[in-house]
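**Backbone geometry record:**
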Amino acid sequence: MDLQSLRTFVACVEEKSLSRCAERLNVVASAVSKRLAELEREHGVSLLRRTGRGVEPTAAGEALYRHATSLLAAARQLERTLASFRDDGESHIRIAACRSVVLQYLPRVISMLRRACPDHRVDIVEASSVVIPALVAQGEAEVGIYHAPFPPPGLHCVEYRRERVALVVPMGHPLARRGPVRFFDTLDHNYVGYFPRHDLANFQRLIGENLPKPINVSAQVSNPEARCMLVREGLGLALMAEGLARAYAERTGVEVVALEDEWAGRQIWMACGDPAALPEGARELFKYAPA
């Protein structure tokens, strides 16, 4: 009995069809039939019965399915555990984080982590908040830190921080004298893009408003410091995490204006799969997360 045969059997039970099982596993149907026949012959029991609607497990098949799903889950966890070690067998921790987290929060936390666990290497994977939960779920990272309205299902999550998105304007801009503004009231001005949710369409879904006029984007750049410099040169306004904006404001010659909009407040989550399966250093990272 091998893992691939178990994966094939589990897929057959869940898809209730040999052809759909083959599609799911990206193999031909004859390969599925051959593996199932070998599995039944090896153990001398019938595991599936044919019906008018496809296949269903026998009593022996149901027992195998229960144990096989547990074994495959354990195998996936084992693969994730081994992936957390370097080629030389020493442990490393992969952290997937969105850019605002990487620039604002990770350096201090990683410094604390390195002092607590000097034998662990930390690898940072910068990614969009939209894809980070999938990276963690698929074992591409031990820990994910990203912003989202709610924690994703299937992952262990703690609230890491809360922050706000702010408006960046040139020095002396009329909006800077007004104090907090609503995004709606800024639409007479051009924008330098890289928007919350990373593109204009997703951003407009985030704010959930029927805007009276389109958002005019004069330039687009993902680097926050470069965005501030384009704002300084009069290419438009920009949106970014308030902490980042204030960090760059003085040296790039821009001003930061608070936004009143509810969507401008956002939660940052720290997520992992099974906390007990994390390398020791990654558990330390959760310990250092702000309450």
User: Anything to note?
Assistant: The mean pLDDT is 85. The domain at 3-83 is CATH 1.10.10.10 (Arc Repressor Mutant, subunit A).
